[in-house]
Write a structure and sequence with these properties.
heterodimer; A: 524 residues; 2 domains; 21 helices; 7 strands; B: 429 residues; alpha/beta; 7-stranded mixed beta sheet; 5-stranded parallel beta sheet; 19% strand; globular
C-alpha cells in the first residue's frame, strides 16, 4: 500500500518537475509521465521540429539512444537527429520511445495546437476538435490567433466551440466569459457538450448555473429524438442482416418446404469463400483489394450453390415429404460441414478485411451512420429484389413456382421436376452464400458462424409467413426494429427473450405467419 | 498448402492414436496423461491450441527421458464443447485409460461438470484458464488467474494516472457465470474505492452476440458525461470480434474510452485488423511480446511444433506449461504417480514461468503470478505498459464478496478448501 502511495506521489509530482525542463529530456525519459510532459512542453515551446517529432512518436518512429538519451527519428530506411534534422548513423542500440494511451492523448492535444495554423481546412478542423477534447488552457493563445484569421465558417464554429470549452474548463475565467461560453456549447448539442454543461452544476455563479441548466434541457430533448431515430436505424440495420440470413431459407424452407438445418453452414461457406478470395487477391493482385467483396459474391454463390445442389441430390431428394428425417439429416450435414471447415482451416477465426469504402462512419444530422452497415442494407435490398425478379420474371422462376404449387401438374406439363428441385435448392443455398460475404464484414469468420443465424432465420421465415418473400422482408425488418427499440430499455439478453416469447404467442394466434399463402395448394 | 498442413497433422494424430493402441499393450512401461479439451464445437477455437501445447510438452519431456524413467503417453479425448460429455470423457480417461493426471477444461461450467468425477475417482485436474474464483478443490490445481490476479490489478491500473485516472466505469460482459461473478467482485471493489452507483454501468449480452450497435452507442453516451470513462470487458471469445469492429466503426478510440479486456488474447486478435484498436487494453499474466530467454525459446518451439512461423502463443498456454512442469516435478518428488502422494507433493513446488519469474504452487492450489497490462499494437500483439512489481498469490475466495471473504482454502495445514475463519469450521459460509 505504501509503495502504491509512493508511486502515486511520484506520478503526480513528475509532470510538475518536468514542466520547465528541456522537453527533449522529457521525451527521452523513463516513465510515461515524463514523456507526456515532454510532449506538452514541446508543443508549447514553438520548436519548428515539434510537428515532425510528435508525428514520429505517434507512429513509433521516435528513437532514443539509452546511453546519452539522444533522440532520433526513423524516416524510411534512414535515421535523422530529432533536434536538428541532420542525418545520423543507424545503430542497433536505438530503442523506440514507447507511447501509451496517456502519451497518445497528450500527442493528440499537442498536435491539435500545432495544426491550428495548418493551411489545410480538414486538419484545422481536426485540430479544433482535438483542442475541444483536451480543453488545455495552454492552447488558448494559439486558438485565439487561429480564430482571428479563420475564413471557413465550419472551422470557425468548431474553433469557437473549442474556445468556449477551454474557457469553461480553465479555472479563473471571469463570469461574463463563462456565461458567453455556454451558448456555443449548447449549439453543438451532442453528448460531449452535455458533459461540459453538466460539469457547470457546481459553478459559483447563479446565472451560469441557470444557463447551463437551460442548455442541458435543450440538448436532452434533441438527444432523445436523435436517440430514438438512431435506434430505428440500428433496427433497420439488424433487420437487413436478418433478411440476408433468412432470404435463402425463404426459398429452401419457404418455397420448397425443406427444413434445412444446414442453411447456416451455407452462410459460413460463403464467408470462407470471401476469405479465400481475399487471400488470393492479397497474394497475387493486391491492387484489386477494393474489389475483393464484389469478386467474392459470384464465387460465394457458386460454392454454396454447388454444395446445396450436392446436398439435395445425395440427401434431401430421398427424404421429400418426411420433414422429421430431413431435419435430422440436414442437421447431420451441418455438423459434417462445420467439422470439415474446422479441419481444413483450423478452429480459429480468419481475418476478412474491410475495403476502404466499408470502414468508418459519418454524421447525418446527429445520427451516426457506419458505412459498413449502410452498404449491407443496400446489399440486402439488392439481393431481395434480385431474387424477387428471378422468381417472378424468369422462366426458371416460373418453373420453380409451378413445381412447388403443383408438382404433378408441372410434371405433366413437361417440366423435369427433380432438376428444378435441385436448382431451386441450389439457388437458396447460393443466396445464403452471398449472405456470408456480407456477414464476413460484421461477424467472426469461424466454423461456428452459421449456428448463430439458423434460429433467427427460421424465426423470420415462420413469422413472415412460409412461402412469401415479401413476408420475409417485413418480418426481418419488424424483428430488427422491435429488438433494437427494446434493447436500450431491457438490455440485450431480455430483448432477445422477449422477442422469442412474442413470436411464440404470435404463432399461436396466426400459425401461418404475417402473410399467409391462400389457396388449395396450401391446404393439401 | 493449408490443406496439406492439416492433412499432415491429421496423419500425425492418426499415428498418435495408433501409437496409443500399441502403448496399451505395454502399459506398465508408460505413464498416461489425459488431455480433456474440446476439439470440436464452439470452444474448439480456444481449446484446440491447448491440446497441441500439451502434446508438445509431453513430446519434449519424453525427449528428455520421460518421468521416473518411463515415457509419458498422452491420451486425447474430445468432449466436443458439450458440458455433460466432459464428465463422461473424464470418467473414461480415469477409469478406462487409467491416466495419472488430466489437463483440461476451459469454461467454468465444464470444470464444474467434471468436479464430482475427479473427487469420486480421486484423480488430478490441472485447469489452465483464468476464472471467477470462489472455488478450491482437493483434486484440482488452478494454474490460470484468480480474480485478484487479473481483474483487480487491471482496475487499479485504469484508476492510476498512467491508466487515465478513470472515474466512470462500464462493466460489459457475456451473460454467464464468469463475467457475472467477476463484475460482482469489481462492483464491490469500485464502491470500496469511492466510485458512486451512477458512475457504474453494468451490461450483459448473450453468447455469440454479433449486433453491437446499440451497446456501443450506449457506451459512447455513458462516456460523454464529462468524466474519464473506461470499459472493463468480460465479453467472451467469439463476440469480441464484432464488438471491436463496431468500436472501430463508431470511432471510439482508446484515447477516448479505453476497453480493458480479460478474455482477449493474441489468438482472438488474429481474426481482426487491429489498427483501429491500437491502445485498447488487456490484462493477462503472460504476453507473447514479453522478451525473456524462456519465452523466446517457448515461442520458437511452438512455431516449430505447429510448423507455422506465424503461430501465436497466449496466456492459457503458459498456464498449461506451468501446470505440466509442476506436475512433472511433483511426480519426481513423490517418486510415484499415485494421486494422493502427488496432491500432497504439489503445494510448494516451484516452476519458472515464461516471463522471468518463478511460479509457486500455494496450499490453496492456486499459483503465484505476475500481472501485466498490455496495449494492443497495430500488428496484433500487445505492448506491456504496466506490470506488478512482484508475483501475486492467487486467492481462491474473493475478499470483496460477502460470504466468501471469511473463507480460506488451505489443503496443507487445514486440509480444507472452504474453511470459515469466523465459525472455525470447514464447510463454507
Amino acid at each position: 500500500m505504501t509503495r502504491l502511495l509512493a508511486l502515486l506521489f511520484l506520478l503526480l509530482s513528475a509532470p510538475a518537475l518536468a514542466q520547465n525542463a528541456d522537453p527533449y529530456a522529457g521525451l527521452a525519459g523513463d516513465g510515461y509521465a515524463e514523456i507526456e510532459a515532454g510532449v506538452s512542453g514541446l508543443a508549447a515551446s514553438g520548436d519548428p521540429r515539434a510537428g515532425a517529432i510528435l508525428a514520429a512518436l505517434a507512429d513509433g518512429r521516435l528513437l532514443v539512444r539509452p546511453a546519452d538519451k539522444a533522440l532520433f527519428i526513423r524516416q524510411g530506411g534512414a535515421v535523422v537527429d530529432a533536434r536538428t534534422g541532420a542525418a545520423a548513423a543507424d545503430a542497433a542500440d536505438l530503442k523506440p520511445v514507447k507511447a501509451n494511451n496517456r502519451v497518445r492523448r497528450a500527442i493528440e492535444a499537442a498536435r491539435g495546437q500545432l495544426d491550428l495554423a495548418s493551411p489545410e481546412t480538414g486538419r484545422r478542423r481536426a485540430a479544433a476538435d482535438a483542442v475541444f477534447k483536451a480543453r488545455d488552457a495552454a492552447a488558448l493563445p494559439a486558438l485565439d490567433a487561429a480564430l482571428a484569421r479563420e475564413k471557413d465558417a465550419g472551422v470557425r464554429q468548431a474553433m469557437t466551440e473549442a474556445r468556449a470549452a477551454v474557457l469553461l474548463a480553465r479555472p479563473g475565467t471571469p463570469e461574463v466569459d463563462r456565461l458567453n461560453a455556454v451558448p456555443p456549447i449548447q449549439a453543438r448539442g451532442d453528448g460531449d457538450a452535455m458533459g461540459i454543461l453538466r460539469g457547470l452544476g457546481s459553478d459559483p455563479s447563479e446565472a451560469v448555473r441557470a444557463a447551463a441548466a437551460r442548455g442541458i434541457a435543450a440538448i436532452e430533448t434533441r438527444l432523445a429524438i436523435v436517440g430514438a431515430l438512431q435506434n430505428v436505424w440500428y433496427g433497420v440495420s439488424l433487420g437487413s442482416v436478418l433478411l440476408l440470413a433468412a432470404i435463402g431459407l425463404a426459398i429452401t424452407f419457404g418455397v420448397m418446404g425443406v427444413i434445412n438445418m444446414a442453411h447456416g453452414e451455407m452462410v459460413m461457406l460463403g464467408a470462407y469463400t470471401t476469405y479465400l478470395v481475399q487471400e488470393l487477391i492479397r497474394a497475387k493482385m493486391p491492387g484489386l483489394f477494393g474489389w475483393s467483396l464484389a469478386i467474392s459474391i459470384p464465387c460465394a454463390f457458386l460454392v454454396a450453390g454447388l454444395v446445396g445442389v450436392l446436398i439435395e441430390r445425395f440427401v434431401i431428394r430421398f427424404l421429400y415429404g418426411r420433414p422429421l428425417e430431413t431435419l435430422l439429416a440436414t442437421f447431420g450435414v451441418s455438423l459434417v460441414l462445420q467439422q470439415a471447415v474446422r479441419s481444413l482451416f483450423g478452429p480459429t477465426n480468419r481475418e476478412v478485411g474491410a475495403p476502404a469504402f466499408m470502414s468508418g462512419a459519418f454524421d447525418f444530422y446527429g445520427l451516426s451512420v457506419t458505412w459498413g452497415r449502410l452498404w449491407i442494407i443496400v446489399f440486402a435490398m439488392a439481393v431481395f429484389f434480385g431474387l424477387l425478379f428471378v422468381l417472378r420474371k424468369t422462366a426458371f422462376g416460373l418453373k420453380t413456382r409451378a413445381v412447388t404449387q403443383n408438382r404433378r401438374m408441372a410434371a405433366a406439363m413437361g417440366i423435369r421436376t427433380p432438376y428444378v428441385d435441385a436448382l431451386t435448392f441450389g439457388l437458396g443455398s447460393g443466396i445464403a452464400g452471398i449472405a456470408g460475404v456480407a456477414l464476413s464484414q460484421i461477424d467472426n469468420v469461424s466454423p461456428n458462424l452459421g449456428q448463430g443465424y439458423i434460429i433467427d432465420s427460421f424465426l423470420v421465415v415462420v413469422f413472415g409467413g412460409v412461402g412469401n418473400l415479401w413476408g420475409t422482408l417485413v418480418a426481418a425488418l419488424t424483428l430488427g426494429v422491435v429488438n433494437k427499440l427494446a434493447e436500450p430499455y431491457v438490455g440485450a439478453v431480455l430483448a432477445k427473450i422477449g422477442l422469442l416469447v412474442f413470436i411464440i404467442l404470435f404463432i399461436q394466434k396466426r400459425p401461418r405467419g404475417l402473410f399467409a399463402l391462400k389457396g388449395r395448394a396450401v391446404e393439401s | 498448402m493449408k490443406v496439406l498442413k492439416t492433412w499432415g497433422s491429421a496423419a500425425a494424430l492418426a499415428a498418435g492414436l495408433a501409437m496409443s493402441a500399441v502403448g496399451a499393450a505395454r502399459a506398465q512401461e508408460t505413464i498416461k496423461v489425459g488431455i480433456l479439451h474440446s476439439l470440436s464445437g464452439t470452444m474448439a477455437i480456444s481449446e484446440t491450441t491447448l491440446k497441441d501445447v500439451m502434446l508438445m510438452l509431453i513430446a519434449e519431456q519424453n525427449a528428455k527421458g520421460g518421468v521416473l524413467g518411463k515415457k509419458l503417453e498422452p491420451v486425447v479425448v474430445d468432449p466436443a464443447s458439450n458440458w455433460p460429455l466432459f464428465a463422461e470423457k473424464a470418467r473414461e480417461l480415469i477409469a478406462k485409460d487409467k491416466v495419472s493426471a488430466v489437463f483440461g477444461c476451459w469454461t467454468s461450467v465444464s470444470r464444474k461438470s467434471v468436479l464430482p468425477v475427479f473427487k469420486e475417482l480421486n484423480n488430478i485436474l490441472f485447469y489452465p484458464v483464468q476464472y471467477e474464483g470462489e472455488e478450491s478443490e482437493r483434486n484440482v490445481f488452478y494454474t490460470g488467474a484468480a480474480p485478484n490476479q487479473q481483474a483487480i490489478p487491471a482496475v487499479d491500473y485504469l484508476m492510476s494516472e498512467d491508466g487515465g485516472s478513470t472515474k466512470r466505469w462500464v462493466l460489459e460482459g457475456t451473460d454467464y457465470v464468469y463475467p457475472r461473478t467477476t463484475n460482482k467482485i469489481l462492483e464491490a471493489y469500485l464502491k470500496s474505492k469511492g466510485v458512486k452507483d451512477e458512475d457504474i454501468m453494468i451490461n450483459y449480452t448473450p453468447f455469440g452476440f454479433s449486433d453491437w450497435q446499440t451497446e456501443v452507442s450506449k457506451i459512447k453516451a455513458f462516456g460523454s458525461a464529462g468524466k474519464k470513462t473506461a470499459v472493463v470487458s468480460t465479453v467472451n471469445g467469439d463476440a469480441n470480434v464484432p464488438f471491436y469492429k463496431e468500436l472501430g466503426n463508431q470511432g471510439i478510440k482508446a484515447t477516448d474510452i479505453p476497453v480493458m479486456a480479460f478474455s482477449v488474447g493474441e489468438e482472438e486478435l488474429a481474426g481482426i485488423d487491429t489498427k483501429p484498436l491500437v491502445g485498447h487494453l488487456a490484462a493477462w499474466n503472460y504476453f507473447e511480446s514479453i522478451k525473456t530467454p524462456e519465452n523466446e525459446e517457448f515461442i520458437k518451439k511452438w512455431q516449430a511444433f505447429k510448423k507455422n512461423p506465424k503461430a501465436v502463443t497466449n496466456d492459457p498456454m503458459e498456464a498449461s506449461y506451468i501446470g505440466f512442469n509442476m506436475w512433472v516435478k511433483a511426480v519426481e518428488k513423490a517418486g510415484t504417480t499415485d494421486p494422493d502422494k502427488v496432491i500432497a507433493a504439489l503445494p510448494g513446488i516451484e516452476q519458472k514461468n515464461l516471463t522471468g519469474g518463478t511460479a509457486k504452487m500455494l496450499p490453496n492450489h492456486h499459483i503465484t503470478k505476475p500481472v501485466f497490462i498490455g496495449e494492443i499494437e497495430g500488428n496484433g500483439q500487445f505492448d506491456v505498459v504496466w506490470k506488478t512489481k512482484e508475483l501475486i498469490p492467487g486467492e481462491a475466495w474473493s475478499k470483496q464478496l460477502e460470504g466468501s471473504k471469511d473463507l480460506e482454502a488451505d489443503w496443507v495445514k487445514l486440509n480444507c478448501g472452504n474453511y470459515n475463519t469466523t465459525t472455525k469450521k470447514c464447510g463454507g459460509a
